[in-house]
Amino acid sequence: MLNNRISTLIFEYLNKQGIKTHYVKTLNDRDQLCRRVRIIPLEVIVRNVIAGSMAQRLGIEEGTKPSNVIFDICYKNDELGDPLINDHHAVALGVVTYDELKQIYAMTARINEVLKELFAKMNINLI
């Protein structure tokens, strides 16, 4: 129930900021009505601060603030363990075009800024 309330808060906030989402409305304590979407098998991970696997992979101290926001892309494939890939891999796999990637990065950057503002109101830093 708590997850549903948090998701509702986030998706309604994004929608109010003009960011289109799959969310339509909350039906009850456990369910939401969502639009059908075409799933792109990519996960974009936004890093405002170095932490977790990135800190381990690159040998950078956790908590280091990079000079720019970092976007990691993973290919969503359970059999392969959702590997970290780059833009050229995503295009070569036929998952997206370069133009679509440009749109994905622009949307992701906007969503990151909006969510940073939302969470800052609650004294939470988006890592």
TrEMBL record:
InterPro entries: SAICAR_synt/ADE2_N, SAICAR_synthetase, SAICAR_synthetase_CS. Signal peptide: none annotated. The keyword ATP-binding applies. Pathway: Purine metabolism; IMP biosynthesis via de novo pathway; 5-amino-1-(5-phospho-D-ribosyl)imidazole-4-carboxamide from 5-amino-1-(5-phospho-D-ribosyl)imidazole-4-carboxylate: step 1/2. One of its GO terms (biological process) is 'de novo' IMP biosynthetic process. Keywords: ATP-binding, Ligase, Nucleotide-binding, Purine biosynthesis. Its EC number is 6.3.2.6. The keyword Flavoprotein does not apply. This is phosphoribosylaminoimidazolesuccinocarboxamide synthase.
